[in-house]
Design goal:
Four Helix Bundle (Hemerythrin (Met), subunit A); mainly alpha; 11 helices; 2 strands
Length: 267
């Protein structure tokens, strides 16, 4: 197969890259001339698609033995677009379009929040390539950009569907700003989050598989406003994974670091 085997994983990465670009186009209204779909929901939906397809390039690379430094760097660039810039545009334009008067008076706050999140996403991806990819095999160091982008996109659509952006004086109106900044800082934090991997407990493995399959179904149907409880399911699942996962990471932090050091010394 030669170099042709690299085409498959890079095709999936290219797809993720373009989906991220299309998300930005939807969010900013670039596609309004030929579509009447809600631009924020569609922008968020494309972020969700990026999250669902995110692991396919790595899976394809391992399947055909086509892992490469180029693929790793290309994947990070695609992730920066899909989970850094695209969710940031969803966040920014949801306030700009949904509460224009409030946005006009708080433009600096929104610009600072957007800048912090995007910079944290870029630093998280650079840190992963430079330091973490070969260090922690069972845990993420910091919140993955994939997860940060997805949770912010879903939260924006959920609150928008509940009319929160029509009432600028409520706490929920500020919740996306808080979550946006929190997930930004969590991406570059030293906290550990367990990866979704096969475990020794078969029942737990089945539980993981069921949740993953349900998440894929919910993510694919995300664009359809008539399907009930999809947004609630994704938010509860995401919030639970963060709270429980980071809690476990804190409880076993010393052990995780020691195991990583031991594995490094064995090489």
């Amino acid at each position: 197969m030669g170099k042709l085997r690299f085409v498959l994983p890079n095709t999936f990465t290219s797809l993720n890259f373009l989906l991220g670009v299309f998300s930005i186009c939807w969010t900013t209204g670039a596609f309004d001339s030929f579509s009447t779909a809600d631009q924020i929901r569609m922008g968020a939906y494309f972020v969700m698609l990026c999250a669902l397809f995110d692991k396919l390039d790595g899976f394809a690379a391992r399947l055909v033995n086509a892992s490469s430094e180029f693929g790793a760097q290309f994947d990070s660039l695609a992730d920066l677009i899909a989970f850094g810039l695209a969710p940031a545009f969803c966040f920014f334009f949801s306030y700009k379009n949904g509460a224009p008067d409030w946005f006009q008076n708080h433009g600096l706050l929104m610009t600072v929040a957007l800048s912090i999140y995007v910079l944290c996403a870029a630093m998280r991806l650079a840190k992963y390539n430079a330091c973490d990819s070969d260090t922690y095999h069972h845990h993420f160091s910091g919140l993955p950009s994939t997860f940060a982008g997805m949770i912010n996109a879903v939260l924006i659509v959920f609150l928008k569907s509940k009319g929160v952006f029509d009432e600028p004086n409520t706490f929920l109106f500020y919740l996306p700003v808080i979550v946006f900044l929190a997930t930004g800082f969590l991406m570059v934090s030293p906290l550990f989050l367990p990866k979704l991997q096969p475990r020794k407990n078969k029942a737990f493995n089945i539980f993981q598989i069921v949740l993953i399959l349900l998440t894929y179904v919910a993510g694919i149907l995300f664009y359809n406003e008539k399907v009930p409880y999809i947004l609630e399911y994704l938010l509860i699942l995401g919030g639970s994974y963060m709270l429980i996962g980071f809690g476990v990471g804190l409880a076993y932090r010393k052990q995780i670091i020691e195991e990583a050091k031991a594995a490094k010394n064995e090489k």
